[in-house]
Amino acid sequence: MSATAGEFEVLDVHHHVGNAFRALGGDLSSAPDAETEAYRVREVEDRLRIMGEGGVERAIVIPGHGYERVNGIADTRAENDAIARYRDACPERFPAAIGIVEPRDGHASLAELDRARNELGLAGISFHTRFQGVSLDSKWILAYVERMADLGLVPVVHAMNETPEEALWKLAVIARSIPDTPVLALDPFSSFEATRECFFIAEVAPNILFDTSLSYNFDFIEDFAREFGADRVVFGTDLYSTPVGRRISHLLPQILDSALSDDDKRKILSGNARRLFGVSAPD
């Protein structure tokens, strides 16, 4: 008999909050009411509905990387403040939040890392370099992850291999620079070739955990979990605020129906994420 999501806690590590069209080349006039309180209330309601329909109990929230930055680091600080408020408004469903720093801001981002951890209580920092104007192996990013390792902030690294700025070998450069600190890779299984490359990267950098976002099926990830351990795989969906990405992941039923043990399924669906971000089990 197939398992159901209700038999397992499901904690999604990859939920963005923001207007994806600003990052993905869509209509700049999309979601014109996005800054209103009514929109924000509706956005949370819609997110919780989608989570409920998809069997997802809780999610880690991350700002979108398409926000406007005309005011420099002040805009980045505002994004970090906003994601902390999003978490605090519904902590039973969003138990941890991830922030952003921009390589463009140089040394000033080091101070923002300290503030993100010590004042906002953020659990990690997201890098999405295709939108940040640098390569993953940027010396600034290497400097930031070194500081993050000292602060206990998890590097959350978008690694879509088809984008040169986010190539998986560059992810390995980051991870190998902080070998005693876990690194979460987002979108690494986004194509067949990238999925096969993950098998090599997992050997090169054993401190990387890989999320399931953008994979077209779980078959190869199941093989990956058998070879490297279920401790290296984390459930994520890349769900986004309006107007795109509002979907239920097709991978959850496949994970539940896989031949992995129940213990391994629990690790992938919630246990690894709770350990990574210091999140308690639900009441």
The helix/strand order is EHHEHEHEHEHEHEHEHH
CATH class bucket = Alpha Beta
- CATH H-level superfamily: Metal-dependent hydrolases
Number of strands: 8
Widest sheet, order of strands = 1-2-3-4-5-6-7-8
N-to-C CA distance: 27 Å
Structure class? alpha/beta
Number of helices: 10
Shape descriptor reads globular
Share of residues in helices: 40-55%
How many domains, as an integer? 1
Low-confidence stretches: none
Summarize the main sheet: 8 strands, parallel
**What is the CATH-assigned architecture?**
Alpha-Beta Barrel
The oligomeric status of these chains comes to single chain
Average pLDDT rating: 92
Proportion of residues in extended strands? 5-15%
What does this structure look like?
- The protein has one domain (8-277): Metal-dependent hydrolases (TIM Barrel).
- The protein is an alpha/beta fold.
- The two termini are 27 Å apart.
- The mean pLDDT is 92.
- The chain is 42% helix and 13% strand.
- It is built from 10 helices and 8 strands.
- The protein is globular.
- Helix 7 (192-204) packs parallel to helix 8 (219-228).
What order do the helices and strands come in, and which of them pair?
Blueprint: E1 11-17, H1 21-24, H2 37-54, E2 58-63, H3 73-89, E3 96-100, H4 108-118, E4 124-127, H5 139-151, E5 154-158, H6 168-177, E6 183-186, H7 192-204, E7 208-211, H8 219-228, E8 233-234, H9 251-257, H10 262-277
Parallel strand pairs: 1-2, 2-3, 3-4, 4-5, 5-6, 6-7, 7-8
Helix pairs in contact: 4-5, 6-7, 7-8
